Automatic annotation (TrEMBL):
Organism: Cohnella candidum
CDD domains, per the entry: TM_PBP2 (cd06261)
Organism domain of life: Bacteria
Protein location: Cell membrane
Name of the molecule in the record: Carbohydrate ABC transporter permease
Amino acid sequence: MKKLPVYAMLFLCSLLFIAPLFWAVTTALKSQTELYLFPPKWIPSVWKFGNFAEAWTSQPFNLFLKNTLAVTALSTLGQLVSCALVAYGFARFTFKGRDFLFLVVLATMMIPWEVTMIPQYMEFNYLGWINTLKPLIVPSWFGSAYFIFLLRQFILTIPRELDEAATIDGASKLGIFRKIIVPLMGPSLILVAVFQMMNCWNDYLGPLIFLNDQSQYTLTLGLAQFKGMYGVDMQSIMAVTCLISILPLVVFFLAQRYIVGGIAGTGIKG
């Protein structure tokens, strides 16, 4: 009973986040006549579940989903491999200029993507990658400053005695990384994978700049096609939005405890 006011306050605050999602679902289920009623109706008179199928088949969303899954999977794999290796190097190796180089890596976090957007476009255009999925995948294989920092902080919490014991047993540096460091980094790697997946899944500006052909579109660009010159198909937008939100929500709820553990294990407090 003492915690009842706290839970009541948390419930009221949660409504601020639940209400937009609930509105999106109910809007997707409404008929055209109920979309723009004033005052608005939260609950539709007739639940039109067929709106989801009509919206999904009105555009080649199966193709968009395939492109998005390819970009998300390959980009996430690239971030995991590259960031884990770089973080291991910064955390376990001692070399001249290591701390300065790490500061340079962290300094890149202060540069907004809008500054490097045009140079990247010129570079990818020179390579002939425009209108392909490569500009959305290849940069992820060169790491992310934030993920490198996060994984480095976690590796620093792993006792060096494990490395020394493995070295005595004849393990190489790469063997130590593969057999000792990576298994212990499980929560942090899951955290990086979830964050990267969310970034790729919701990315709109990147595909908008680098993709021109509809056959290469991702889900976000396909969703934007419902916005026409003379109006917005709000019903279809909400229906597709609900459908493409299912996978990220499922992944987040399944990995929730790993996300909390990964953040706690890195020593990052917020």
